[in-house]
Amino acid sequence: MPLSFRAVQNTCPSTINLSIDDKSFDASMAVLTVHHWSDQETGVMEMRRVTRGRIVFLTYDPSFRGFWVADYFPALVTLDEGQMPPMASYEKWLGPVEVSAVPIPHDCTDGFLAGYWRRPAAYLDERVRAAMSSFWALGDVSEGLEALEADLKNGAWAQRYSNLLNLEELDCGYRLVATR
Question: What is the pTM of this model?
Answer without folding.
Answer: 0.88
